[in-house]
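#struct-pred
JK: can someone run the complex with FE2/S2 (inorganic) cluster? inputs below
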Amino acid sequence: MYTEKVMDHFQNPRNMGEIENPAGVGTVGNAKCGDIMRMYLDIDDAGIIQDVKFKTFGCGAAVATSSMATELVKGKSVEEAMQVTNKAVLEALDGLPPAKVHCSLLAEEAIHAALWDYAQKHHLVIEGLKEPKKDIHEDEEEE
Ligand code: FES
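RT: done, structure tokens with the ligand placed:
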């Protein structure tokens, strides 16, 4: 039920770890499954993502989507990184089972949260970027 690419990124995750003094870091979580994902970005003065690392405390699909998301944003500009949506991650992985689609959403949210942190620190406005939810434990109420 998992594609080869999902299994590959789950078993050999790329860019796992953390970056000291990152340009931006963001942590997001899904209240229902309890999974947590953190993304670190190293961004140079030209706004290019030189390095990216992730830590995921979560399911295998969350690990695979984090790994793929880091590969998709590495070397890209901040604006290009905004195009790395959960759909882009899903396509790059050749899909996920329906029950696991929310895991790829976490990857998109983690990138956005890290970009938000970067934008805040540098007083920048990144088009289309919204403020992430403040407290990852606070939204248990939804449906
Ligand atoms: Fe929640 Fe995968 S089960 S992130």
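RT: quick notes.
The helical segments are 4-11, 60-73, 78-81, 86-92, 101-121.
The CA atoms of residues 10 and 100 lie 13 Å apart.
JK: thanks, will look after standup
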